[in-house]
Write a structure and sequence with these properties.
The chain has 71 residues and is mainly alpha-helical. Helices cover 86% and strands 0% of the residues. Helix 1 packs antiparallel against helix 2 (17-35), helix 2 packs antiparallel against helix 3 and helix 3 runs antiparallel to helix 4. The protein starts with a helix and ends with a helix.
């Protein structure tokens, strides 16, 4: 899941947004299903929320920030 998150960061910086979202999402799924590490999961939700904020999708950003706060 760390690899997925790092790939998402690379794609984000490379302006390959769809791939960034896919990898952030995959990271979250892996962490929820297998790792049960709330701190790491919160970081992934925060990364995805920051991504959405950066590109003006504030409703998606808010949903992901809310998930971060629930952890």
């Amino acid at each position: 899941s760390r690899i997925q998150n790092n790939l998402a960061n690379v794609y984000n910086e490379s302006n390959r947004y769809r791939l960034a979202i896919d990898h952030y999402s995959q990271s979250i799924i892996i962490k929820q299903k297998y790792l049960h590490d709330s701190a790491s999961l919160a970081t992934s939700f925060a990364n995805l929320a920051s991504f959405y904020t950066r590109y003006g999708n504030f409703s998606q950003a808010a949903q992901n920030f809310d998930q971060t706060l629930k952890l």
